[in-house]
Specification:
about 15% strand, globular, about 160 residues, alpha+beta, single chain
Length: about 160
């Protein structure tokens, strides 16, 4: 069973990550930015409405996914770009806390509304596949950098 679990996590990491090279720059100072909760909530509603319209289940909010989404959003803000850096570590840590068998994420930057980020993900086959995947839980982090740019991280698991 553990081998099956490890293979699933590895598979998710490979197909869900835009980068195959994890980055953990010790020189990067991570500053915790403030969440834009109104956009986070709106995006969860939009994603769930889309999923329901396709006949899929609604995603339940997860504190654990939210915690890791927030950490990643702060990291992206600290380096000034969107990425999937350290996804393997994030997925493994989440999996150990919630016994997830499959973890994925979507990221975005510079959309001013929840619907803008959603439309971007919907127009990308990989991001759309993730949003419409067989997941049960999610956490969405939306934070603003010092220049007013919004960064988005949505983590999914089942």
């Amino acid at each position: 069973m553990r081998l099956h679990y490890a293979i699933l996590v590895l598979f998710v990491c490979i197909i869900s990550s835009c980068t195959t090279e994890p980055v953990n720059n010790a020189d990067t100072t991570i500053i915790e930015a403030e969440n834009v909760e109104a956009i986070e909530g709106a995006l969860l509603i939009i994603v769930n409405n889309h999923r329901n319209s396709m006949g899929y289940n609604s995603l339940n909010f997860s504190e654990v996914a939210y915690e890791y989404a927030n950490l990643h959003t702060d990291y992206m803000i600290s380096i000034g770009s969107i990425n999937h850096d350290n996804f393997n570590s994030r997925a493994s840590s989440m999996s150990s806390k919630v016994s997830a068998e499959y973890v994925a994420e979507n990221v975005a930057k510079n959309y001013t509304t929840a619907f803008g980020a959603f439309e971007n993900w919907l127009s990308s086959s990989a991001h759309r596949k993730t949003m419409e995947g067989e997941f049960t839980h999610t956490g969405i982090s939306v934070k603003k950098d010092a220049n007013g740019n919004l960064y988005f991280t949505q983590l999914f698991y089942r």
